[in-house]
Amino acid sequence: xxxxxxxxxxxxxxxxxxxxxxxxxxxxxxxxxxxxxxxxxxxxxxxxxxxxxxxxxxxxxxxxxxxxxxxxxxxxxxxxxxxxxxxxxxxxxxxxxxxxxxxxxxxxxxxxxxxxxxxxxxxxxxxxxxxxxxxxxxxxxxxxxxxxxxxxxxxxxxxxxxxxxxxxxxxxxxxxxxxxxxxxxxxxxxxxxxxxxxxxxxxxxxxxxxxxxxxxxxxxxxxxxxxxxxxxxxxxxxxxxxxxxxxxxxxxxxxxxxxxxxxxxxxxxxxxxxxxxxxxxxxxxxxxxxxxxxxxxxxxxxxxxxxxxxxxxxxxxxxxxxxxxxxxxxxxxxxxxxxxxxxxxxxxxxxxxx
Length: 354
Ligand code: PLP
Ligand code: COI
Hints:
The protein has 354 residues and is α+β, with helices and mostly antiparallel strands. It has helices at 63-67, 90-103, 111-124, 197-212, 258-269, 281-290, 327-340; strands spanning 8-9, 34-41, 44-52, 70-72, 75-79, 85-88, 136-145, 158-167, 175-179, 217-221, 228-232, 236-241, 244-248, 274-277, 279-280, 293-300, 304-313, 316-319, 351-353. It contains 7 helices and 19 strands. It is globular and about 60 Å long. The structure holds pyridoxal-5'-phosphate (PLP) and 2-OXO-4-methylpentanoic acid. Pyridoxal-5'-phosphate is lined by residues 74, 231, 234-236, 255, 257-260, 299-301.
């Protein structure tokens, strides 16, 4: 039975809404007026608050800063034509949040607290949810360790927070991607399946090198032999090869994406053969060469459905068809948008109405 969360609300006297340019919303730069904060102390979650968005003060000795006890989630709220605001599949993020927490020896958060905290702060800042096509409110829940202690051990205190920011698409163009065959994002037994901050910090150096070579994203491969495709830096990867929808099966090296699950659910309902399995670099390159690779795209909350225009391996670049002509990803994009923005029936119960 869900109890209503007792949240202390302090509203800002100085809303920034009027000064915000909703025609210029690059990902991750604009924050709404309020944020959610809670503390974990003495073995329980407490001090549930919504406060004006702003800087916070922490000890310089917190283990989040020194040892990376920190992780996050990412989901989105959408505005429908009738003004309804919905959050997409927050139950999935609540479950993944706790998988990350467990992997990092951090406290789990009851799923209903996760969902209610998000709903409460989105409700207060609902005017911040953009009404424009391809725009939404990005929701960033996160948790970090707050003990003032430099020993390498799990903290006993934590903060959970939720930030909100109106945003346009994360990627503004068709992606030129490189298959990474030297660096590794995560290895078996590691924490690739967790949304731990360290996974992203560790990926920055190889990603920067790829950007310098003119690529937009890396496709990570298995740590052992770099023979199998895993995922992209900020999205899962889905292919249509010879009429089949193919994506790497999830394992401890891959983030189990909500968008990935949504895409596969729709694909199965539409009658496409769907294969979740090991996907070799060789078969994807072969498909790119012989034209059987009909579609390739990144699938993620921030990334949405991000078409891949070319795939490079060891200095060879293979070009795919014009994304506008691709049957599967275009259909997914249309249907997903229709559901999220309330223009198609939500038969799966994916929209959590705020
Ligand atoms: N993989 C990584 C590394 C990500 O950061 C993301 C984004 O959250 C995804 C995959 C896609 O996951 P989701 O669809 O749940 O956003
Ligand atoms: C998301 O899609 O929510 C992500 O976490 C991607 C982010 C790293 C930009």
